[in-house]
Amino acid sequence: MTEKILTARFEKPDSYRLSSYVEDGGYEALKKALSKTPDEIIDIVKAAGLRGRGGAGFPAGVKWSFVPKESEKPKYLCVNGDEGEPGTFKDRYIMELDPHAIIEGAAIASYAFGAHVAYIYIRGEFKLPIERVENALAEARQAGFLGANILDSGYDLDIWVHPGAGAYVCGEETALIESNEGHRGMPRIKPPFPAIVGLFGGPTVVNNIETLSYVPHIINKGPEWFAAMGPEKNGGTKLFGVSGHVKRPGLYELRMGTPLRKIIYEVCGGMRGDKELKAVIPGGSSTPILTPGEIDVNMDYDSLAKIGTMFGSGAIIVIEEGTCIPRLAARLAKFYAHESCGQCTPCREGVPWIAKILDRVENGMGLPGDLDQVLKICDNIQGKTICPLGDACAMPIRAMIVKFRAEFERHVEEGGCPFGPTPTPWDSES
Amino acid sequence: MSNPASRENGVDGPITINGETVRAIDEIVKRYPVAEAALLPVLHKVQDQLGWLPVSALDWVAKRLGLPKTRVYGVTSFYTMFKRQKPGKHRIEICTNISCSLLGAEHLRDHIAKKLNIKPGETTEDGRITFDEVECLGSCGTAPVMLVDDKFYEKLTPEKVDDVLDKLNKDDLEAGGND
Ligand SMILES: Cc1cc2nc3c(=O)[nH]c(=O)nc-3n(C[C@H](O)[C@H](O)[C@H](O)COP(=O)(O)O)c2cc1C
Ligand code: FES
């Protein structure tokens, strides 16, 4: 069950140092890759069924194949380490504990579509991850795994860290590119897609940290091995970050397609204090909430899409009975309102409006009609903005209202929250 | 919004950017095809040295990178990590986003606010501690979480928080945290 690919080295002392990485066969995949043609690499990654782990689940090899072979402007790879989606805490571990895996994966990807410069965009609050990745880059450069004529292959590549500075929207790929260029993180209209016009106007691939970290393993062990680990079109393992009311929250590497019920009740030891489950947010705060009747689902992109939610970043937030859903909805809306970049009217105006209404519902000042008003605002945001940040608010809020409507209505009718303050772990004994 | 004399952009006396910072900046600029792209990492370096970004520092950066001042003000104001008001000697930032909230982060926020006798977003009168409520810090598996002077403190309880506050008061918060 617990297949270790990315986390295999996490417990080793000095796992983040080059010596430790090389001792475990590190950079062998890069050597191998450089002896193949770029197209061969793309085919291998396509065959592996590696899908993007940043949220959208787009097949990595296919994305690389969209980059034009010939380009007047330099091509770039942007590695997405912005890790801002509430509930998500996986890339931080890779950066801290196995940064060379990211570098090797990024180098193979860059070679595959012809980039000679890559940037690893890391959220600014992550001081230790930034330090670890920068040190690892320096080690790799020193050892000749980066720089000019890598391993005598004639291929040149430089990779640099680009720190973010506290803006969730910069995790969105075109906002990330803007931010990487030194601008405000305002998403761009697509098309043109980054693969055609991206960083500094050149063809650009944006890939998540976790996505790229699988690539060396795929090169070493072959695409069949990787593909076989998950359901069709959902290859490999996944880092699941489980938070909330389970006995053992934390980071777990599991096969794609592991049943959600199993993750909650076996892998994480069940609910804290053996309370009843009330709801699960399956893939980070932007993904629609599930009720206990919906948790017999396999955790992969396609199975979750089938039941109307999303795999997202694999961040599972588990919620126990007695939790106030309107309070969560109000808190999430406040987050999205704070993070809206302000470019598109529906998101800039609509999201804070939702936040305001939900706040008054939670605090007993809700009016009849408020819930329908929120749903109407959601309709007016979804699909009507440049980037999906507005959707990322509208979709989960809508699901919360639709699935827990009676609870919201009770707040309005009773003029207050029936749940009382959030219980804390420290004054219950669980 | 970016009028340098406005409330958002704090004004300070003349500043000196030290040699170490300048050298670091010169290295950073080389990593990009255009100097403008270095703006975020450069602002970080300057802020690391000064503790915040007064207008004089923004003007210095604009000159160094050959950018219009307005460009630098505009970018600085977009990102929450860039401090345009002088913060206290220490900074406490507690996450109250969803996973932390489920495990009682609001109680801790109120607890800290009461102890310091300030609201989130404020600095204690003696200028020692700035306290703020922030969004998800990417450490939800070890919630509730706070950052103190850029170090992570995880699985917080009121006792742990009190311990950190005591140490901050005595100024003996070693390179603590649990990273
Ligand atoms: C508002 C918003 C925030 C996002 N934040 C992140 C993030 O923090 N990290 C990430 O890898 N992808 C994030 N994404 C997804 C990226 O846009 C992009 O799809 C991803 O980085 C592509 O990499 P992948 O194909 O390897 O998953 C975000 C998307 C949106 C709309
Ligand atoms: S919700 Fe607090 S760290 Fe993620």
CATH fold descriptor of the largest domain in chain B: Glutaredoxin
Helix content of chain B: 40-55%
Strand tally of chain A is: 10
Query: In CATH, what is the homologous superfamily of the largest domain in chain A?
Result: NADH-ubiquinone oxidoreductase 51kDa subunit
Report mean pLDDT of chain A, rounded to a whole number: 97
Largest sheet of chain A: 4 strands, parallel
Provide the CATH architecture of the largest domain in chain A.
Answer: 3-Layer(aba) Sandwich
Task: Please write the string of helix (H) and strand (E) elements of chain B.
Answer: HHHHEHHEEEH
Largest interface: A-B, 62 and 46 residues
Q: What's the alpha carbon Rg of chain B, rounded to whole Å? A: 18 Å
The main β sheet of chain B shows up as: 4 strands, mixed
CATH T-level topology of the largest domain in chain A: Rossmann fold
- Helical fraction of chain A equals 40-55%
CATH superfamily of the largest domain in chain B: Glutaredoxin
Percent of sequence in beta strands of chain B:
5-15%
Which consecutive residue ranges of chain B, at least 5 long each, have pLDDT under 50? 1-5
Structural class of chain B: alpha+beta
General form of chain A: globular
Q: What is the CATH domain class of the largest domain in chain B? A: Alpha Beta
Give a count of the beta strands of chain B, DSSP E runs of length 2 or more. 4
**Assembly type of the shown chains?**
heterodimer
Task: Explain what this protein looks like in three dimensions.
Chain A has 17 helices and 10 strands. By secondary structure, chain A is an alpha/beta fold. Chain A folds into 3 domains: 210 residues, NADH-ubiquinone oxidoreductase 51kDa subunit (Rossmann fold, 3-Layer(aba) Sandwich), CATH 3.40.50.11540; 84 residues, Ubiquitin-like (UB roll) (Roll); 90 residues, NADH-ubiquinone oxidoreductase 51kDa subunit, iron-sulphur binding domain (de novo design (two linked rop proteins)). In chain A, helix 15 runs antiparallel to helix 16. Chain B is of the alpha+beta class. Chain B has 2 domains: 75 residues, Arc Repressor Mutant, subunit A; 85 residues, Glutaredoxin, CATH 3.40.30. Helices cover 41% and strands 10% of the residues of chain B. In chain B, strands 2-1-3-4 form a 4-stranded mixed beta sheet, covered by helices on one side. In chain B, helix 1 runs antiparallel to helix 2 and helix 3 crosses helix 4. The N and C termini of chain B lie far apart (37 Å). The N terminus of chain B is likely disordered. Classes of the chains: A alpha/beta (430), B alpha+beta (179). Chains A and B meet through helix 5, strand 3, strand 5, strand 10 and helix 13 of A and helix 2, helix 4 and helix 5 of B. The structure holds flavin mononucleotide and FE2/S2 (inorganic) cluster. FE2/S2 (inorganic) cluster binds next to helix 5 of chain B.
